[in-house]
Amino acid sequence: MDLIETGRPQLILDEERCKRNINRMASKAKKHNLQFRPHFKTHQSLEIGNWFREAGVEAITVSSVDMASYFASDGWNDITIAFPFYPGQISALTKLENTAQLRLFINKKDQISVLSENLLKPFHVIIEIDPGFGRSGVHFNEHDQIDEIINECKSNALANFHGFYIHDGRTYQCKGKKDILDHIEPVINVLNTLKKEYPDSYCIMGDTPSCSVLEDFESIDVITPGNFVFYDWMQVKIGSCTIDDVALYCQVPIAQRLVNTNKAILHCGAVHLSKDSILMNGQRCFGQAVEFTNTKIKTIDNLFINSLSQEHGIIIGNIHDMTTNSVMICPIHSCLTANLHSHYLSTDGKIIEKRILS
């Protein structure tokens, strides 16, 4: 594509690659007889949501009640809120239940009583399982707590126990397909055990690396990945995808070239990319420079953002490879980068609206 010179950083979305990612994951779910409830926190766009509809998707996952309301306004009526329930959600949930079937993350049996006292319609209960990552959920060894929640559902007129969910963030530290498979094996073992103990439950997996590389899903019934819609530089380095699968880039202006030091100052800081980074050859990388055409994406080797402040980015390497007034950056984490911008610009110049702030 011809770079569109702007005075500020601009998110560039390749619609063709994005739809290709959506259709590939939807086809994979169908091939393995999995329910596909993609996480919409990555793109946060009604228009992109409709691209999922075109691929046959009927149910979605979100990370907040506000995000659920945003997508419910466009007719999505089967929504999983993949964040632990807390009482502050009640007011918004009482409105949301009028337009959507809710699937909620419950970690304590008392939360079911709180919900049933305030909601009027049935809701599904999902127990988030902590496989040892330590982020949130019920630890997989806490059998008594799991039984208490399920038994509470059985005695409650509104609560329907749906199943178990695991998002194991340890796969985001992997390097290569084999490493992902090695890391996810214990998680699958946990889900296999839960499936044996509770055969009527649904087992749900949520992380993009696992859903991208697995070909044997065993006891898993539902997948809810989100990042795959765009992918990013982290996913390339993990081994979830190739650079040609990445659909989202940030085009940033070059403000100053420091030729003698092989550095340049970019108008591109943490408020445009986020502070996420990865290590490359012992150096911190906040974004990888690429050459971008409609048919091919190629990394510019040894040219990457090495430092970020709020508005400034320092890119290091052979800056002579940057021959225009801006440079295309493959973001480290597309979910966070997308959340910082008010819209996308397609490769043919179309504005694609989205929401911000999850």
Features:
358 residues; single chain; 11 helices; alpha/beta
Describe the structure.
The longest helix is centred in the middle third of the chain and has 21 residues, at 177-197. The two termini are 31 Å apart. It is built from 11 helices and 20 strands. The strands form 3 sheets. Strands 2, 3, 4, 5, 6, 7, 8, 9 and 10 form a 9-stranded parallel β-sheet that branches. With 358 residues, the chain is α/β, with parallel strands linked by helices. The protein is globular and about 70 Å long.
Short description:
The chain has helices at 15-31, 46-54, 65-72, 90-96, 110-118, 143-154, 177-197, 208-213, 233-238, 270-273, 334-339; strands at 10-13, 35-36, 60-62, 78-84, 101-105, 123-130, 138-139, 159-166, 202-205, 222-223, 248-258, 263-267, 278-280, 283-285, 287-292, 297-308, 312-316, 326-331, 343-346, 351-353.
What is the topological layout?
Elements: E1 10-13, H1 15-31, E2 35-36, H2 46-54, E3 60-62, H3 65-72, E4 78-84, H4 90-96, E5 101-105, H5 110-118, E6 123-130, E7 138-139, H6 143-154, E8 159-166, H7 177-197, E9 202-205, H8 208-213, E10 222-223, H9 233-238, E11 248-258, E12 263-267, H10 270-273, E13 278-280, E14 283-285, E15 287-292, E16 297-308, E17 312-316, E18 326-331, H11 334-339, E19 343-346, E20 351-353
Parallel strand pairs: 1-19, 2-10, 3-4, 4-5, 5-6, 6-7, 6-8, 8-9, 9-10
Antiparallel strand pairs: 1-11, 11-12, 11-18, 12-17, 13-14, 15-16, 15-18, 16-17, 19-20
